[in-house]
Write a structure and sequence with these properties.
Layout: H1 8-15, E1 27-34, H2 37-47, H3 54-58, H4 65-80, E2 94-102, E3 111-116, E4 156-159, H5 165-170, E5 176-185, H6 188-199, E6 212-214, H7 239-247, E7 253-256, H8 262-271, E8 274-277, H9 283-287, E9 290-297, E10 306-320
Parallel strand pairs: 1-2, 4-5, 5-6, 6-7, 7-8
Antiparallel strand pairs: 1-3, 5-10, 8-10, 9-10
Helix pairs in contact: 7-8
Length: 340
């Protein structure tokens, strides 16, 4: 909630760094301006249903105040903040700025922002009471020019089935890896359940010793898929569990997306383990590297069950190495919780 004389543009620029990398930039930023606080948030989300048109807006001969605000934010976020794709630095942070507005009380100025990640998450449809929504099936040829694999350049091949702590300690922040072998999954609900079992010295349903855990809740497979889209979830929600998973259960590496807390970095450094970053927003492409999938624990948790994947050339980047160095250092001034 801003005072009427405060700058919306400056406020948005201040907020962008606090989003971290978990929203998987580059994406579209939706802004709701005015109305009530509730209306502002709804407008921010609804604005993301509009088509991307910032390039056309650049060439428009006359602009109103809201269009000028969109253009200015687009230029300043991309050119001044150095957030970049996946939060790794650069000038491609937002693809467009969308904005909806409404009248508001003279003594207050509600503003809301909603980021939409590189894998667009929103769609619209209408329910008119005649039955279930029937959504159009898109022509798959529209994506013919998009590669079916993630290009990771020069990479280090890693066999997860024979991985040693010495090998993990040889990696350095920024190294690109291609993982093959057996990979466990676990996210929020599974972490909470395992942590409770460790607290009460109960045996785990699957050993984590020397293993890699991928923070993911895969989508159900359809057709001939081994598994549906399987993109990483934001890792810092698991930070509170990390020390016990390493010290008590023997976890060797964790895989997810975005930055981690100072607490997690210190744990990784102390234990000589590593944290790998998978590509946020590339869930479909990541799923193509999974050759086999089975539930090995907590089947009642559905997509949050623990799966064992067999992967071939699963792309990941060393985000935090065993020395405590991390890929966001000095590049992304957006993560106060890991800045020294």
């Amino acid at each position: 909630m801003l005072n009427p004389n405060e700058s919306v543009e400056d406020w948005v620029l201040e907020q962008m760094p606090t989003l971290g990398a978990g929203w998987c930039p580059p994406g579209v930023l939706g802004i709701g301006l005015g109305g009530s606080p509730e209306q502002a948030m709804q407008m921010a989300k609804e604005s993301l249903h509009q088509p991307i048109d910032i390039q056309q807006l650049k060439h428009k001969s006359t602009l109103d105040d809201y269009e000028r605000l969109r253009l200015s934010l687009y230029e300043r976020i991309n050119n001044e903040l150095n957030i970049g794709a996946q939060g790794l630095g650069g000038k491609s942070t937002v693809l467009d700025i969308k904005l909806r507005h409404a009248p508001c009380h003279a003594a207050m100025l509600p503003v809301a922002i909603v980021p939409n990640c590189a894998a667009t998450r929103y769609m619209t449809f209408e329910l008119d009471g005649s039955g279930a929504a029937c959504l159009p099936v898109h022509d798959k040829s529209l994506w013919d020019d998009i590669p079916d694999t993630v290009n990771v350049g020069e990479s280090i091949a890693v066999n997860l089935d024979t991985l040693t702590k010495e090998e993990v300690r040889s990696w350095r922040a920024g190294d690109m890896l291609l993982l093959s072998g057996k990979l466990l999954t676990a996210r929020d609900a599974a972490h909470k359940r395992i942590a409770n079992m460790l607290l009460h010295n109960q045996p785990l349903p699957v050993s984590l010793s020397g293993r890699a855990v991928y923070y993911v809740g895969p989508v159900d497979a359809t057709g001939d898929e081994v598994v549906g889209p399987a993109g990483p979830t934001t890792s810092n929600r698991m930070d509170a569990y990390l020390e016990d998973f390493i010290d008590k259960a023997g976890l060797l590496i964790s895989i997810g997306k975005a930055e981690r807390s100072r607490q997690a970095i210190d744990v990784i450094k102390k234990t000589g383990t590593a944290y790998l970053s998978a590509v946020g927003g590339a869930a479909y492409l990541i799923a193509k590297t999974i050759t086999r999938s089975r539930v090995v624990a907590f089947e009642d948790l559905g997509m949050e069950a623990i799966y064992e994947f067999e992967v071939r050339d699963f792309p990941a980047t060393v985000a935090i190495d065993s020395t405590g160095d991390y890929i966001h250092r000095g590049v992304v001034p957006i993560i106060p919780m890991i800045q020294e």
